[in-house]
């Protein structure tokens, strides 16, 4: 890329990064989009991948394919690990642990958030979150394996533990996961087993609030509660999950009282989010204020105070209680692209104004919620509106048609065609790249360190 044109570096290929790069496609700037996954993930449908309704390819799209027609947009695979604001340079790590640098004139931080365990990171071993494709595949494996193991056990407490699923967090993701597992147990798997009755599977939903879906109005929250109750989801409100073990969870009531123990061999965590490590690093380097979750304080135009060339968008932008939803990221990406275009035209920037386009949550087939300003829709019509909205924002025409087709089949039949899962082979060391070294498998006894390098 030539040095005469403005260099825009976007970190993160989620909704914010995607929409920013799209709007700058064909503009007289050089855009580099750096992402640790090399693909755009449609996170709102991640739970449908985890529960076997949709495939990985239907909710993701390679960034290279997305920007193939935009010659001024370069996509790179890497994880940002360091920034030098004086030289305007970001250091990124390749999957093989080596590093490279990227120069920028404008830096857009759209790295998003990660699952938060509120300082109890050891929970992650037994309670996977729901943020990445790896998370979805991990959850799919655990959920369907639980039924398979239960099939081999005699009636009793051990089998009951495998047929109990605990979900921590009563927000949209937690509600959607809980509803899908119960629907799967009562429809998809109902007649596929001989020793167990999948319909007897328990799904426990724990949350510290008084009701599920606190971001929705009380009326829709109550309808969600009724729908979950009809499905058979057991709601436990006003409690905190204070321990997660291999075989269950410990629950502590907020109002006081003795702890409660629940035997559950599958625990899923959707209870909180926090800034990714690079976001905390860049805030420290720039001297920017952050909130408890690591969101970075930004100016009205979404830039960082004292660094007008650095923008923070999406979930990471800490200003005026901007919500951690896809619409905020999309609008933030479009806003930053507009700032760049206005600067090229010699015009001043405008402040960012978030427009609330509403919220939606899926519970089960024919049951969803939609809230757009004064408009509140639930049940079948909410489900239709939910479907149209999600299809509209899926990346790629092919993914949209494929997803619609899959949903139509799912409506007509109880089957979920994307529920295959694989179990790792203990005797075969995996040959894979990794972002970290702590989780790498130890080398075989007869192998040398040089031979095991990737």
Which labels suit this protein?
25 strands; 4-stranded parallel sheet; FAD/NAD-bd_sf; 6-stranded mixed sheet; disordered C terminus; 12 helices; membrane; alpha/beta
Helix content: 25-40%
Structural class: alpha/beta
Mean pLDDT, as a whole number?
88
* Radius of gyration from CA coordinates: 23 Å
Q: What is the straight-line distance between the termini?
A: 29 Å
Strands of the widest sheet, in order across it, are 5-2-1-9-21-20
Number of helices: 12
Question: What's the overall geometry?
Answer: globular
Contiguous uncertain segments of 5+ residues: 428-434, 437-454
Number of strands: 25
Main beta sheet strand tally, sense and closure: 6 strands, mixed
Proportion in β-strands: 25-35%
Write a brief caption for the model:
Helix 1 (15-24) runs parallel beside helix 9. The chain is built from twelve helices and 25 strands.
Could you walk me through the main structural features you see in this protein, from its secondary elements to its overall organization?
- The structure is a single chain.
- It is built from twelve helices and 25 strands.
- The protein is an alpha/beta fold and 454 residues long.
- Strand 12, helix 7 (218-231) and strand 13 form a beta-alpha-beta unit.
- Helix 1 packs parallel to helix 9.
- The longest helix has 19 residues, at 133-151.
- The model is unreliable at 428-434 and 437-454 (pLDDT under 50).
- Its EC number is 1.6.5.9.
- The chain crosses the membrane at residues 377-397.
